[in-house]
Amino acid sequence: MIPAYNEAHQIESVIKTIPDFVDAILVVDDASTDGTSEVVKASQKNYTNLHLIIHNKNKGCGGALVSGYEYSQENDFDIIVRMDGDGQMNPKDLQPLLDPVADGSCDYTKGNRFFSGKAFETMPKLRFFGTAFLSLLTKIVSGYWHLSDFQSGFTAINRKALKTIDWSKMYSRYGQPNDQLILLNIENFIVKDVPVDPIYNVGEISGIKIKKVIFTLGWLLLKRFFWRLKEKYIIRDFHPLVFFYGLGLFLGGVSLVLFIRVFYMWFITGHIPSINALAAFSSFLGSAQFSLFAMWFDMEANKHLKEK
């Protein structure tokens, strides 16, 4: 499955590199304006297994993914691979991505561009550090502590996971790969990272605006963090880690207020009130301890979701 938006200059070369063992190729044209669908239609003359879905309105990468997943369910496919239409994913990595899902050792695999050590050399530096930072945050938010490179869209999913998840709940814009893992974690699906080689400077055009992404994705992860705690550790199966996270957040707020008062009094009177400072540091340490214990409990609760 290839979600594509304005990839007319790349989509044909991507289709040509798909291995012969693939049963069907589905391109989801997400309301492109550059003739992407026309290029795909021309390629259908040479590929009898090439199918096309065209969106009349842009729905984002998540919306395109949902359309592809719905098509896959209707046609009862066993494994669905997502490969973007910008040429940044190496088809040679398709087999290693498929094998763990095909042999039943996990439900979902995703490419990890950091394993090879080439990512720092090949990825744009701002994108590399941004992806690394977002991966750290998503570990906490998703519960998949053994994964990294959460922005990777090179994935494979089995039929069971495909039919279990309510895909209407998935975020449709940038941040969709992060949100997809949160949905998988709530349903306790086993996920594995697979080393892949990052490919850049092949004519791709990035539509990502860094300033906008920082706020939108940051807010998404914050909301989804609390949503996952509610769904997984309160509604479905209670776990005391919610108390630890709650106390950590409460004491963190208290310490913030106390530190503000410390600096205010220091600025106004010229000296630091010792009791106020002691209370601020004590609440900060308490917040850090409760939060770290909560993360540890979460890690233990999800360690069975790592391939053995």
Question: Which helices and strands appear, and what pairs or packs with what?
Answer:
Blueprint: E1 2-4, H1 11-16, E2 25-29, H2 36-43, E3 50-54, H3 60-74, E4 79-82, H4 94-102, E5 108-112, H5 119-122, H6 125-142, E6 155-158, H7 159-164, H8 176-186, E7 191-195, H9 210-236, H10 241-269, H11 274-301
Parallel strand pairs: 1-2, 2-3, 5-7
Antiparallel strand pairs: 4-6, 5-6
Description:
The chain is an alpha/beta fold and 308 residues long. The protein is built from eleven helices and seven strands. Helix 6 packs parallel to helix 9 and helix 8 runs parallel beside helix 9 (210-236). The chain is elongated and about 80 Å long. The longest helix has 29 residues, at 241-269. It folds into two domains: 2-233, Spore Coat Polysaccharide Biosynthesis Protein SpsA, Chain A (Alpha-Beta Complex); 239-305. The strands form two sheets. It has a four-stranded mixed sheet, sandwiched between helices. It has a three-stranded parallel sheet with strand order 1-2-3, with helices on both faces. The mean pLDDT is 89.
